[in-house]
């Protein structure tokens, strides 16, 4: 048991700093810049650059990759993003992206809906989705 605990502690920093893959449905032919990604995940943009509707999916706050995504993709801490969305919700000016509990849930949702965009650990990517961006 003690060995398992030590091994899990050693692996934790690796998973938190893993590459992040921004994924969409395989039929989605659009390209995306990091600025577009920021605008999608902050509610300032509701369509892909090609004009098709875009619906972002977020990992739950409890998932370590979420904080990594907020920092690498959006350039803000998770607490800053949470405060940003709290203000928009309070004033009735926005609704934050739907939250899901795992990479697998993101992959399933995105693979079944061409309008969704999400992110997962790059190691979790399957052939059922298309990678638009990779964040290191």
TrEMBL record:
Name of the protein: Phosphate ABC transporter substrate-binding protein
Organism for this UniProt entry: Rheinheimera maricola
Signal sequence extent: 1-18
This protein's UniProt keywords: Signal
Alphabetized SUPFAM superfamilies for the sequence: Periplasmic binding protein-like II (SSF53850)
């Amino acid at each position: 048991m003690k060995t398992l605990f030590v091994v899990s502690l050693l692996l934790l920093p690796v998973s938190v700093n893993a590459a992040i893959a921004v994924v969409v449905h395989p039929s989605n032919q659009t390209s995306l810049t990091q600025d577009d990604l920021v605008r999608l995940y902050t509610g300032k943009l509701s369509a892909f650059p090609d004009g098709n509707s875009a619906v972002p999916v977020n990992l739950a706050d409890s998932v370590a990759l979420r904080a990594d995504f907020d920092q690498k993709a959006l350039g803000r801490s998770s607490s800053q993003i949470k405060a940003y969305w709290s203000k928009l919700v309070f004033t009735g000016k926005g609704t934050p992206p739907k939250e899901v509990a795992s990479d697998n849930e993101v992959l399933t949702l995105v693979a079944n809906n061409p309008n969704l965009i999400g992110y997962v650990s790059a190691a979790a990517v399957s052939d059922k989705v298309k990678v638009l961006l990779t964040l290191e």
